[in-house]
Each structure stands twice: as structure tokens, then as C-alpha cells.
What does this fold into?
Amino acid sequence: MVHKILFWSGFGIAVRAWQLGIEMRPLLAKEGLWAYPFFAGIGGSFGYWLSGVERRQLQVLADRRDRLLEKRQRRAEREAAAGGEQGTTAEDGGILASTS
It folds into this structure.
């Protein structure tokens, strides 16, 4: 998480330097030094928000993976309980597995 915040803070500082370069103004003028921490703070807050988004997305993916594994386990148990009957599984019956 810290590496994302530091990266985006550095990106904010780079954006400020790029802005001053486009305007052809000095990078370290006394009147404009307050803007570097401001841009770094904006970039850091974006990085913090982005790390939260990533954490939530990883949690959703883990939950979906767990539900899928549980579903597969229940299906395997159901097929094992059905015994050795022929044509009971979706693959044996010729039906697509996604429709069962």
C-alpha cells in the first residue's frame, strides 16, 4: 500500500514539474514551492484510494473463487452419491456443463 502512495505522490510532483515546464517557468521559484506538496498530496490520496479499490477487488475475486470451489465440490459429491449410473453427469449426457 505504501509503495502505491509513494508512487502516486511522485507522479503528482512530476505533473507539477511538467506543468511548469510547459509554461516555461522556473521549477523552484519561491512563490510556487507550496504547490509541490499540494500536488504530492493529491497524488498520494489517489494512490491511497487506488489501493483500497485493489483490496476490495481482490476480496471479491477470492469470494467468487471460494464459491466456485464449493459449487464444484458439491457437484462432485452429488455425482459420487448418484453412484455409477451411466448418463447422469452433464458430460456423459452430452449436455454442456454450463447448463447443468
